[in-house]
Amino acid sequence: MDLKLKGKRVFISGSTSGIGFATAKLFAREGASIILNGRTEASVSNAVDAVKTEIFGANVSGIVADFAQKTSVDSLLNQLNSIDILINNVGVFASQSFYDTPDEDWFRMLEINVMSGVRLSRALFPEMLRKKWGRVIFISSECAQLVPPDLLAYSATKASLHAVSRGLAQMAKGTEVTVNTVMPGSTLSEGAERFLEEAATKQHTSKEAVTTDFFKNVRTPSLLQRFLTVEEIASTIVYLCSEKAVGINGSTVKIDGGSTGGVF
Ligand SMILES: NC(=O)c1ccc[n+]([C@@H]2O[C@H](COP(=O)([O-])OP(=O)(O)OC[C@H]3O[C@@H](n4cnc5c(N)ncnc54)[C@H](OP(=O)(O)O)[C@@H]3O)[C@@H](O)[C@H]2O)c1
User: Quick check: is 173 in a domain?
Assistant: First the structure.
């Protein structure tokens, strides 16, 4: 299937590893031109090199920017232009009690998880509307719907992305600009691996035992009963950005292994 992504310019926030990096590689294989992003020169140049090594002829570059710092984001926005496809992927979480989550942590998560996509969209959306073609994807989480109590702040930031995304889609009425939200379930990114390793150390057990316990006792409703791979999320993101997916707009696409339930 020709996804007609050749030559499209793609920016993916937080893409030196995990879901963002897997998505970048799939776009590169489709002949798109990719701009990666991370917080350090080293992580960005390593990721750019890794894509070039793995995919012959890949058109890939990178911009260092930290979405926790507005000045850093302003500098990033000055360097971005003519983006056809924007993937608002960057997101951070912290497992903590509601009572032990200070304002600073709430604001940090709002800044990185929500304002990243707001600021990027505000800068890049008008040109998509002028060209009457564009794709914007917001990466939410199953937590937006499940709202685990130890991830309340994270879940609240992810839930708000659905409103931002739907609102932007409505602003693009009559064009072929689409805006959608992807809702991944628990996915084995490097970040998730670290989380499992830390939990195993704390509980004096193995990563495998923590994983088994997670699906048996925490993510019980998961039908898949395993972590999704980053590639399983990336393939849907890339498809949603293709010409073929123009009819999917203002929607939430769940890739959650069935964890959030419901028939719609
Ligand atoms: N993994 C899951 O189970 C899961 C489930 C549902 C939803 N999600 C969502 O999917 C998205 C990707 O998750 P992931 O697990 O793939 O992420 P991850 O492995 O934790 O992602 C790390 C990436 O984010 C970048 N990053 C972190 N903080 C940043 C900041 N302040 N500014 C710029 N870049 C930053 C890192 O760049 P550097 O290290 O190079 O700075 C790296 O490229 C997130 O929005 C997450 O909430 C994940």
Answer: yes
- In this prediction the pTM is 0.98
Mean pLDDT score, 203-230 = 96
The answer to whether position 217 is within a domain reads: yes
Catalytic residue among 154, 214, 215, 227: 154
Residues 159 and 31 in one domain: yes
Q: How many residues does the chain have?
A: 264
Same domain, 223 and 159: no
Predicted local distance difference test score (pLDDT) of residue 88:
99
Candidate from 39, 210, 219 with most ligand 1 atoms within 8 A of CB, to mutate: 39
When pLDDT is cut at 50, 70 and 90, the band that residue 257 belongs to is very high
Concerning whether 154 is annotated as a catalytic residue, the answer is yes
**85-88 and 33-38 beta bridge pairing:** unpaired
pLDDT tens track for 123-182: 999 999 999 999 999 999 999 999 999 999 999 999 999 999 999 999 999 999 999 999
Ligand 1 atom closest to Cα of residue 43: 40
Q: In what order do the strands lie in the sheet with 85-88?
A: 59-64, 33-38, 9-12, 85-88, 133-139, 176-184, 252-255
Total number of domains in the chain: 2
Q: Phi/psi zone of residue 112: left (φ > 0), alpha (ψ -120 to 50 degrees), beta?
A: alpha
Domain containing 242 equals 9-185+230-254
Q: What is the pLDDT of residue 167?
A: 98
